[in-house]
# Entry
Amino acid sequence: MTAVLDIPVQRVQSSKLLQVALENVPFGKHFTDHMLEADYVNGEWTNVVIRPYQPLNFDPSMAALHYGQAIFEGIKAYKDEAGNAYIFRPDENLKRFNLSAARMMMPEVPAELFLDGMRQLIALEKDWIPALPDHSLYIRPFMFATDAILGVKASDTYKFMIILSPTGPYFSVPMKIWVEEHFTRAVAGGVGFSKNAGNYGASMYPTQLAREKGYDQVLWTDAREHRFVQEVGMMNVFFVFGQKVVTPSLEEGTILDGITRKSVLVLLDEMGYQVEERPLAMDEVMEAYAKGELTEVFGAGTAATISMIELLGYKEEKLHFDTQKFVTAPALKKALNDIRQSKVADTHGWMVKI
Amino acid sequence: MTAVLDIPVQRVQSSKLLQVALENVPFGKHFTDHMLEADYVNGEWTNVVIRPYQPLNFDPSMAALHYGQAIFEGIKAYKDEAGNAYIFRPDENLKRFNLSAARMMMPEVPAELFLDGMRQLIALEKDWIPALPDHSLYIRPFMFATDAILGVKASDTYKFMIILSPTGPYFSVPMKIWVEEHFTRAVAGGVGFSKNAGNYGASMYPTQLAREKGYDQVLWTDAREHRFVQEVGMMNVFFVFGQKVVTPSLEEGTILDGITRKSVLVLLDEMGYQVEERPLAMDEVMEAYAKGELTEVFGAGTAATISMIELLGYKEEKLHFDTQKFVTAPALKKALNDIRQSKVADTHGWMVKI
# Structure
């Protein structure tokens, strides 16, 4: 594929790849040999370069560290058995990245920088993509404010980067989830829909409290009444009632418009499920559980893909689910994996070949 | 004053001070010759050092840039006519800093590092404190997460720093404020009370929209009904009804527990005002304005100190205030300035001598 941008490449002298066991990598710990970098100065993107992964210099007054203009995306690249490399729906991540940017008063990143830059970087790092099941190359595009001044205002300068990290399964065992009714993640008019750094830091303390109760993550509820489910830690959440699947809708702007969520909705529809995007109250969840009508609960996200939930803790109640009997979540996981590993035709045009 | 901590000092070869016109400095643009730095590693604070102000190195995967564990404080140091230097209530900032840290799952910073470190740094930079009215040395303690790993979890390592910037008046003219009813800053159970970086980035877009309407800042309202006033941009807000002054209360955890707010409450009480900390609805504000009973509106914050408001834009209404006739706000500003410049006795024990 011909790149629109002619990005200069400074190559490493020798690759670190041989030092990394790709079949057994922890999430986000090892980075590939090169990174993409670009600077936003005087209203335009400049200094676009692919160069060896290395530390950066920053002034102690750098705006991102003080006023939180910092956003990111998470995307995955896969390698099929024939050795072909693909990125999963990066165009959707670009759209969401620029929505995040607008909400945080940051400049738009053009498609040629985001998409062509990503393709060129990954083409260079193709050997870093693990070809194993549930493994992938995690792609982290991010942007942060770089002005060196303490006045509270949108920065005039920014840095956009893409770094890459080979990864295995993120949550490989079924999860225990605490339904959170005290702390809130987002409210209408806020920044819940944007993938800004602050949302994640703000979630860590409530998550820690849930861990101390024996759970892995929290299921956020709405800020007004703590009645409607929102999303789970780093994933969108799906509730299966037999042939009907319900997931919270996006119109309040409080949850992330997940790319895996979006893909799952398409696949569920194709599988013949009745899919509903709408507000879902815990009352309804509890009632269906009591009647035996709530058959599965699972999360969907880029890092975790499809993650089955075996326990929901809600007030004094514990809702147990036998994930061995789950049908929908495993079928979705297989469908997504088959597409990602080119085992079935990519009828949706989701895979972008490197 | 004997310091508890024995902090090694690496001095600059030559000072930048002569290159900076202290009587005419923009806010937060020039930094003094030295900075304080400390690292949190293996559960303890180490590598405490005062060294020349300079850029830092960070890994592109540094946690603060991706997941927003980043908090700060703003404090001011003043010099009186006799040349004595004082810091205004830094112990209160330390308390708030550690409340922010706890909410963002960051480690506590001990008093000796925060307070003694600050005193030693400022003692070294005493010549940088402008001795002019409305001028001061702005003190920025901050902490950010430094782990180089992309898994979403509280970082194991952090950096704490103090940097200093000489400053003049921040908002020197009366302000025009837009009462915001669409966007929200914070909600109960969130991070509104904590001084984390993300809160500021999230406020920039709504503030920009207000600017495009001709206003300087927004007055946030509660997330649930957009009925109760919260705070103004970077300040707490006070409404004066003759001899009664009302400011929003803190119990929801959605607004900042401002040190200037706290000081203003004490001074108002001493001046004989009836002070009320409670929810204040815009209905009540509008009604009092219509009756001519709302005499003043002003903001209070470290950067701006006391900032008079000449216009409140609310829905289709414009509430005008003749700041020339303001009595309370100027009296507070003078009282605070007199304390800060040692023109009156520091009866509250607010000034910490260097």
User: Anything to note?
Assistant: The radius of gyration of chain B is 21 Å.
